[in-house]
Q: What sequence folds into this?
């Protein structure tokens, strides 16, 4: 749900009574890996959790929104309220850009502190186009036509993970 506020434009607020976008998992099983992870809404938070496996050249888990479009053209950064596990995650924005027939993600990493709420800020200008982990030279991010928001863990470390998200805002 999009709401205007003095602190920016709330793209997603998991504690709001209004419906948030639907979220679904995209794990390394799409290429033969064995990682498991996914989204769950618990107590007004998106809980992205699971298990990273490096078997069969795997090593990532992600979640992605669907059903909402976002216009972040009037803003310069994105802020998330997260409680992590000490690992670095990626924030990902998607537009209708494709590499072949697959979507391009515009990404930037953010750190977390184990067991502590933090509010990482990501300048929109630092989001760079990537396809399956490879940097691309373009196309540029169309900030008026963001079709989905995603989160990804792909730090090449096997084991359990958990990221909690209260909200994502444009500022």
A:
């Amino acid at each position: 749900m999009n709401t205007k506020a003095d602190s920016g434009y709330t793209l997603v607020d998991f504690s709001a009574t209004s419906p948030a976008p639907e979220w679904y998992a995209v794990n390394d099983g799409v290429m033969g890996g064995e990682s498991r992870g996914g989204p769950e809404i618990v107590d007004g938070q998106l809980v992205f959790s699971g298990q990273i496996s490096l078997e069969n050249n795997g090593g990532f888990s992600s979640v992605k929104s669907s059903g909402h479009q976002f216009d972040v053209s009037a803003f310069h950064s994105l802020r998330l309220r997260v409680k992590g596990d000490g690992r670095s995650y990626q924030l990902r924005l998607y537009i209708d850009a494709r590499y072949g027939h697959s979507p391009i993600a515009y990404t930037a990493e953010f750190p977390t502190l184990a067991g502590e709420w933090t509010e990482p800020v990501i300048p929109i200008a630092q989001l760079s186009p990537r396809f399956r982990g490879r940097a691309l030279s373009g196309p540029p991010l169309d900030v008026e036509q963001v079709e989905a928001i995603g989160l990804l863990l792909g730090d090449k470390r096997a084991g359990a993970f958990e990221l909690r998200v209260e909200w994502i805002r444009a500022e």
